[in-house]
Amino acid sequence: MTATITERLTDDQHPKPRIPAEGHHRDVNGGWLRPAVFGAMDGLVSNFALMTGVVGGAVSSGTVVLTGLAGLAAGACSMAAGEYTSVASQRELVQAEIEAERLELSRNPHGELAELAELYASRGVDPDLALAVARQLSVDPDRTLEIHAREELGIDPNDLPSPVVAAASSFVCFAVGALLPLLPYLLGATSLLPALLLSLAGLFACGAVVARVTARSWWFSGMRQLVLGGAAAGVTFLLGRLIGGAVG
Asked: Count H helices, E strands: the chain?
């Protein structure tokens, strides 16, 4: 039986891999991670800023709660609708490109074979070997389409982002983020301070969590989000104070 590449490397005194060949990379396609992260961040920052702006206008606690609930509902629905439309449009565009590639493969298989071989040769593979590899990979039509989509378009036809997953992730995470500054008022608070402290802690925590899937340190990411969110809330508070004083 022919030895696998890993077995051959082991036989040649190369160390065995410490991690499996597949599954050790982070998910960077953004099917659910991007809308979830942006949803939580946007929900927390936007509703916190909205509520501080209303508080700056010197309104009652009941008005602050009503504003926070309205901001949560409107923002979550808006984010979900936006994510669904965006991802669905992207998916439809990608599928159209895949169908165009499928048609080209059926009309001009020899030209596509030569194109794939030239691509491998341009990456340093011996031309004869590149042609042999391209021929072997072109035996199965479905597999051929997948390879051409990966190599020419940079996409995986079997791993396209789902609009439903993106919309649901965005809706839920926005709602959770937007609920955080509202929670103290729902529990009976009558001043902005508890909501402020909880929101700032939430901003830092969200930034630190995001750092788990990026190359940044947790404290840098956390502090960056805290500063940006705090600045947004401060600006809206001042605007609320100015506008509230003017209309009052």
From this structure: 9, 0
